[in-house]
Design a protein that fits this description.
single chain, mainly alpha, 8 helices
């Protein structure tokens, strides 16, 4: 409730400015808008677990974790991650709980740097929270491919 009250008005200002200028890199746009937070801090579910799911599928040799990751991949693409959060389990597990807390912080910092240096355009279109990663970055930045590339970098 606090996050949305603070960052939704900034997103609405970005939408209005973009509709007038059609420029997603303008200095008069806000970086910390609601869609930007979703693009870099909430993709793949809370804790940005889509990266964990992909890592398990690629690198893990444990069959139980690979099964959970396989089940979690499709919901994770739509930002629903309860299957991985409770299936691995990450709840009350300090080894996985610490990255669960710090991964979104790292991706938000990366997203901020990419946006400040001009690599990633600012968020100018509000997309549904269930939009899959990479497509979300593309749409949120006004159909700019660098938004998708920036979100792909954050996933890695």
């Amino acid at each position: 409730a606090v996050k949305e009250a603070l960052f939704t008005p900034l997103m609405l200002e970005n939408i209005e400015t973009f509709s007038k200028t059609n420029n997603a890199k303008g200095d008069d746009l806000h970086i910390f808008a609601m869609a930007w937070l979703q693009m870099f801090g909430e993709f793949g579910g809370s804790g940005v677990t889509i990266g964990l799911v992909i890592s398990i599928l690629v690198f893990s040799k444990r069959e139980d974790n690979r099964t959970i990751a396989g089940i979690s991949l499709v919901p994770g693409l739509f930002n629903i991650n309860e299957t991985v959060t409770f299936g691995i389990p990450m709840v009350l597990n300090p080894i996985l709980g610490i990255p669960f807390v710090f991964a979104p912080i790292a991706t938000l910092m990366l997203g901020y740097i990419l946006t400040v240096i001009g690599f990633c355009p600012k968020a100018v279109i509000n997309t549904p929270w269930t939009t899959p990663p990479i497509l979300h970055g593309f749409l949120t930045t006004g159909a700019n491919i660098m938004g998708a590339v920036s979100q792909a970098i954050a996933i890695v």
